[in-house]
């Protein structure tokens, strides 16, 4: 296999590569020839094993969603306030600084876990990173479960936060490496999984809000026969967190290592075996493996990779453009108000809404988020990534603008309902804004730097989240700024600025293999020409942009 660098256009000419016809029953990981021509549904049906491991890889997102909402819900529990709060004017109050520390340092730990994920994955593999994440999570939850002081609770949140960053980043890397172009739509399940984590936390916590003992959040209790004829046992908030590391450990022995990681480590024979375990047919496995090897070798040539990949390379040359896109994608969760929405129950109670109504609206909002994420999976195959992200951010900006207008009438009961309803409607934005963005983030990174690029992206995500988790309690607490619905103006402004940035920076990656994206970034294709650019990799094109008449 040889490659020639062409001058100005900087695209690759792959020599001695004969066109191949795809086998409709195989995965065809990242093979430009075999990845075009099948529908998403056909690819999903042909690759059930890959789909199952995509679901498994998204458990980090589920854990993150569960952990994020747990604290907000626990803050609204009488028993939790009595355990960790101080008696002030006849009622228990948890100081704002402890709320900020619990939120912020947990995000800092998640950020550190995400940063550590890159080196751990590159040295020991994706399976090892999942194992470390599961062990850390189990230990952190044990500390949280037994904590009786705010400091001990904080320590548990920090340890568990490390595991969340590690699991999330590893899962995103793994999914991007085992999916073909058509199956890559499963990357939107990241947001569906996170929303499912929110829903599980809400379903466990909301029926227990009024319990005054620590059974509300710490132990298992049996309801009376009059309340539940079958005497159902309700699983508690913090103890239920042990389920997630248990699931990781249960299925980890069956998880094939990433073929890309094995190729980078020179273990090509083992990579071939892993491709077979992922459901690829014996006749296609050598071709798929050859594509992975070719992609890795071409990238090494372009980057003069004679040494171990470093984080610094992510900020040089064309890799800096890729890193910027990943950073934008990871910032979007806070742009659409993720920290605001997860603190929604406590915010609405502070604004004067009853616990019962708050619980109802929270569960409805989360259900919206799950439905939105699932619908996005289909729509993304039709409309592409860029258009959906732009639509999602635009919709978020509109919803928060309405909320900000309602916030101008703080003493109006109808205005409070408008704030609450539009806050929950904001969950709809999760699907179109975040799902496709996570797919783009997993696609635009180079193969050799993927683990480190995604680690940088998630690190930035958690840094940005940390800032907002520190700020949020001071924006809505009644003894602080007490902005109420006026907070909507802040997120509406961020959304407007973000739309402008994404218009010039976010490319359309729908229908592009990793080899094609490598060629396009190397050729420095303008953002709005990504959809029209014709690649030579695997297709015989001359690497050029196709201009419509209107251009």
Automatic annotation (TrEMBL):
Which InterPro entries does this chain map to?
MFS_dom, MFS_sugar_transport-like, MFS_Sugar_Transporters, MFS_trans_sf, Sugar_transporter_CS
Does Membrane show up as a keyword for this record?
yes
Matching SUPFAM superfamilies: MFS general substrate transporter
Q: Which segments carry the region annotation Disordered?
A: 1-32
In alphabetical order, the GO MF annotations are:
carbohydrate:proton symporter activity
Membrane-crossing ranges are 46-66, 128-147, 232-255, 325-348, 360-380, 387-409, 415-441, 453-471, 483-504
Main location group: membrane
Kindly state which keywords UniProt assigns to this record, in alphabetical order: Membrane, Transmembrane, Transmembrane helix
Q: How does it sit in the membrane?
A: Multi-pass membrane protein
Q: Which residues form the Major facilitator superfamily (MFS) profile domain?
A: 53-510
Biased composition of type Basic and acidic residues is found at: 1-14
Spell out the subcellular localization from the entry. Membrane
Q: Which Pfam families match?
A: Sugar_tr
Q: Name one GO cellular component term.
A: membrane
UniProt record similarity statement: Belongs to the major facilitator superfamily. Sugar transporter (TC 2.A.1.1) family.
The record's PANTHER family line, in alphabetical order, gives:
PLASTIDIC GLUCOSE TRANSPORTER 4
For this entry, the protein name equals MFS general substrate transporter
Organism of provenance: Aspergillus welwitschiae
Organism lineage string: Eukaryota, Fungi, Dikarya, Ascomycota, Pezizomycotina
């Amino acid at each position: 296999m040889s490659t020639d660098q062409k001058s100005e256009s900087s695209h690759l000419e792959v020599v001695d590569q004969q066109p191949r016809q795809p086998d409709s029953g195989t995965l065809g990981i990242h093979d430009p020839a075999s990845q075009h021509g099948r529908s998403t549904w056909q690819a999903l049906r042909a690759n059930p094993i890959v789909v199952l491991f995509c679901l498994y890889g998204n458990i980090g997102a589920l854990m993150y969603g569960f952990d994020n909402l747990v604290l907000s819900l626990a803050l609204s529990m009488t028993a939790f306030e009595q355990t960790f709060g101080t008696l002030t004017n006849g009622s228990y109050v948890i100081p704002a600084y402890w709320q900020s520390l619990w939120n912020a340092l947990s995000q800092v730990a998640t950020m550190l876990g995400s940063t550590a994920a890159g080196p751990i994955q590159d040295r020991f593999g994706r399976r090892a990173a999942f194992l470390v994440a599961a062990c850390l999570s189990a230990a952190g939850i044990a500390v949280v479960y037994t904590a009786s002081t705010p400091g001990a609770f904080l320590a548990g949140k920090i340890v568990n936060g490390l595991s969340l960053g590690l699991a999330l980043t590893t899962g995103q890397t793994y999914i991007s490496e085992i999916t073909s172009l058509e199956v890559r739509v499963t990357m939107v399940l990241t947001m569906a999984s996170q929303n499912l984590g929110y829903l599980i936390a809400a379903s466990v916590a909301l029926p227990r809000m009024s319990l005054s003992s620590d059974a509300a959040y710490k132990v298992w209790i049996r309801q009376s026969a009059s309340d539940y004829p079958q005497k159902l046992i309700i699983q508690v908030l913090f103890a239920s967190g042990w389920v997630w590391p248990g699931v990781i450990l249960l299925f980890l022995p069956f998880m094939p290592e990433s073929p890309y990681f094995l190729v980078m480590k020179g273990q090509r024979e083992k990579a071939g075996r892993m491709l077979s375990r992922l459901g690829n047919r014996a006749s296609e496995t050598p071709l798929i493996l050859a594509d992975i090897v070719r992609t890795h070798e071409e990238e090494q040539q372009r980057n003069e990779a004679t040494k171990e990949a470093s984080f610094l390379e992510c900020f040089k040359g064309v890799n800096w453009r890729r890193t910027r896109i990943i950073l934008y994608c990871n910032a979007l969760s806070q742009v659409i108000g993720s920290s605001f929405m997860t603190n929604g129950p406590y915010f609405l109670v502070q604004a004067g809404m009853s616990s019962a109504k708050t619980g109802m609206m929270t569960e409805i909002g989360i259900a919206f988020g799950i439905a939105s994420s699932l619908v996005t999976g289909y729509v993304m195959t039709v409309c592409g990534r860029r258009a959906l992200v732009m639509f999602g951010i635009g919709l978020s900006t509109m919803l928060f603008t309405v909320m900000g207008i309602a916030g101008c009438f703080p003493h109006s009961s109808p205005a409070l309902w408008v704030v609450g309803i539009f806050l929950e409607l904001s969950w709809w934005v999760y699907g179109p804004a975040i799902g496709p963005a996570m797919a783009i983030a997993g696609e635009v990174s180079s193969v050799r730097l993927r683990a480190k690029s995604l680690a940088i992206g998630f690190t930035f995500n958690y840094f940005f989240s940390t800032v907002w988790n520190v700020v949020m309690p001071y924006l809505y607490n009644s003894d602080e700024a007490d902005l109420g619905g006026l907070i909507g103006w802040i997120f509406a402004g961020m959304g407007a600025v973000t739309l402008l940035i994404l218009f010039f920076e976010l490319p359309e990656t729908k229908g592009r293999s990793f080899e094609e994206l490598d060629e396009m970034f190397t050729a420095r294709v303008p953002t709005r020409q990504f959809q029209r650019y014709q690649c030579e990799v695997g297709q015989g094109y001359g690497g050029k942009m196709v201009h419509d008449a209107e251009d």
